[in-house]
Amino acid sequence: MQEPSSRILQIIPAEGWKAHYKNKDEADFVEPVVCFALVEETDINGKKKQTVLPMSWSEYEVDFCEKISNFSEISHQQ
Asked: Where do the structural domains in the chain lie, given as residue ranges?
């Protein structure tokens, strides 16, 4: 059986966007969103879906904001 897969099709700059996270005491802290990624996901039936997801620094690498456990939201600051 085929496993679900995903791949990044395009990276888009994210100027002015911020990722909001909550630390252990529920205090908010903010990190810049590095970029948005156009991601194509293919399910086990071969059906494809495209999504745009924000990415930010996670320790020593850039990762999807949603993969970081304490991520809450993104916002745009002008």
From this structure: 5-68
